[in-house]
Every structure is written in structure tokens, then in C-alpha cells.
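Subject: sequence -> C-alpha cells, single chain

Hey, anyone have a minute? Need the predicted structure for the following. Not urgent.
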Amino acid sequence: MSVELLLCVGSLFLLAGIGVPVAYAILIASMVYVGAAGQGIGIVGKNLLDGIYQSFLLLAVPLFIVAANIMNAGTITDRLLSFCVATVGRFKGGMGHVNVMASLIFSGMSGSAVADAAGIGKIIIDMMRKDGRYPAGYAAAITAASATIGPIIPPSIPMVLYALVSNASIGYLFLGGIIPGLFMGGVLMGMNTWMSHRRGFAVEEPVPLRDLPRKTANAFPALLMPAILLYGIYGGVTTPTEAAAVAAFYALILAGLFYRALSVRALYTIFVESARSSAAVGLVIGGALILNYIVASENIPSILAGSLVAIDISPLVFLLAVNLLLLVLGCFLDATTIILVIIPLFLPTCRELGIDLVHFGVVAVVNCMIGLITPPYGILLFVINAVTGISLREIIAEVWPFLAVLVVALLAMILFPGIVLFLPRLLGYEG
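Reply:
Had a minute. Here:
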């Protein structure tokens, strides 16, 4: 490791350790490297701008953010919740099931775990806490756990970022996330059922079956969003970026004209908040692109790949080791940083060992999402604490069972690649 790289890494950890935002820490550390190496400081700006402006795929990120924020507005969320209550609310632990099912549905519209937790999650937590039916910590914990499904079922902002660094097909990554997302929902519902029987949680009053067709019809236009996205991509009608634009436009038409739940003032607020969120993500992406330039300059991926291949490590052992590392890093780093900075280090080794990049990408994204609820720094725990006022101690005390079953689900995806690759192969993927 060169002196310049040591200075870069040292600066990065020092700045992050004293609370400097990750994006700024990466940018400053990159400038330290460039300065120490005697290169012009302008190379930092050049790599940042080239990386952002030359990637058409990155346009999908702000478009999906806009779509998510629009879908969070107005009566769309209320209609989806009514549909979920009517279908699964009648079972033991019904509101917990409603929580998970709402995340499954909303994941097909937002692509963002934070959008899920801060939007529809807050509403469900209030419903679960009404009349003391569920402890506040439990309601918050299952909300955080179910929000991790958001970026697994398409659309998915983290998968767009993974496609950017790996050149894997975004379409097949989206397809590969469908069954794992449903699987995660299933294990969370299973744990909720077990906990509800063990702790004697109340059963909701069932919605009459005669009301189900009406509630389904109310929610049906919103439920079409994932189908429109997938048809656009796999029917050859749109590229993934164009599909993101279609999603944003469809959400706007649905909320503004069909449901009449969106005012001009609300739309302005949505655009401002979306611009801020997109800028924050863009800064991290820009910093990661510069850091990746430094990593490539030091030839680290090739050295790492050569070393691991030389010791004859098996693909399965490599996958298990990388995922264990990502779980640990997820306790301290956000998902965007892991996907853009850490995961590219392992891609050359994946290619050398014959590991499918779609399988690796979906598993890595699932792993990063689990990191969002892993103490001490799981960002979803902080988001829910901020929007509900429920203490972190209560949330963390209740989140462990859901964290455990999600880790088991992740292990199953690693050991049985067919969970991820079944749908992509069904639709022509040859990996």
C-alpha cells in the first residue's frame, strides 16, 4: 500500500470519525491522495463530473425518488392500507401482517427503504399503537424490518447503483429481486405470527369479504405501478431510466388527476424535497466515483482478486466471507457507500471465481438493507425514532428477532442461487 493511499484512508476514517458527512469525507480524502501523489487537484472535479454526466442510468435515481415522494402524498397510501387491512388484517397479529404487506406493495413504487419507513411506516405505527394493541417498540421494529424490502422488489435505487459499478443488467437485477423480496416478507410475517401468539397480541375485527372487491378496486391503479415498470423494461418499450420517468409521470397522473389528492403547493414541496434527496445521493456517488478512480490507480481490485484466486478459495466460501464482512460494515456505513465504494473491490474476484454478478448483486443489496436495521447505527432505526418519537432503546430491544430471520433468509439466498436467478433465467438470462 502506497504512502498516498495510506494518507487517503487515514484522512477518510479520521473525518468520518469526527462526524463529517461521508460524501464530504470521501471528497476531502481524495484531494489528500491527489495532492500527495503530485497530481493536479482538478482531476477530482473531472472524475466527479465525468462519472455523473456520462451515466444515463443515474438519471433513474432522482426519478424514482420523485415517484416515491408523490406516491407518499395524498390518499394513495390510505387506499393501499385499506386494501392490506382487508386482506391480511383478519389473521393473528393482523396489523403486523398489514405492516409487512404494505411494505411489499409500496416497495414496487418507491425503491427506497427510507421513503417506505418515513412515509407509510409512520401511519402504520400509529395504527398499531392505537388503544395500546401493540407495544411502541414492537410496532417500530417490524416497520423498520419490513422497510428493508423496499429496495429489493423493483424498482430499486440501490440496484441501479450496483448496476452502475458492475455493468450488470439492471433489468435482470430487478427481476432477481422479486422472489427474494417476497421471501423476506414471508419470513417477517412468520416471525410476526409466532410473536403474536407468544405475546397474545389482539386480533383485528375482520373486514367483511363483500367489501374486498371495492377496496381492491380503490387500490388497483396504485398496484399497477410495478407491472407497468416491468412491462416497460422487459417488453422492450423503455430502458430502465425511461421506465423511471414513466413511473414518476404515472405517479403524478395518479395522485393529481385520478385520485385528486395533490395540490400545486404539495407538488412544489415534493419537487424541493426530491431535489435535496437527489443532491445528497449525488454527492455520495460523486465521491465514490473519485475513490474508485484511486482504487483503480492503486490496482487494488486486481491484487485482491489475484491473491484470493491464488489461495484457491471456493466461490461459496468467498460469498460467505464477503457477506459476513458486509454485515459488519452495515453496522457502521450506509448502503450507498457500501455499494459504491466497498463492493467494487470484490467484483473482479467474482468474475475470476465464476460467481454470477446478478446473484451477487441482489444478495449484496439484501445484505446492505439488513445493515439499515443493525444496531448501533442502522439508519432506519434513527429515521423511525425521528418521525415517531419512539426511543431507540425500545426499537433496538424489539428488532432482534426480525433481524435474525432476515439473516437466515440472506443465508438461504447465498446457498440456493435459484431463489434469485429463477425469474431472470425464466425470461432469458443466461448467467
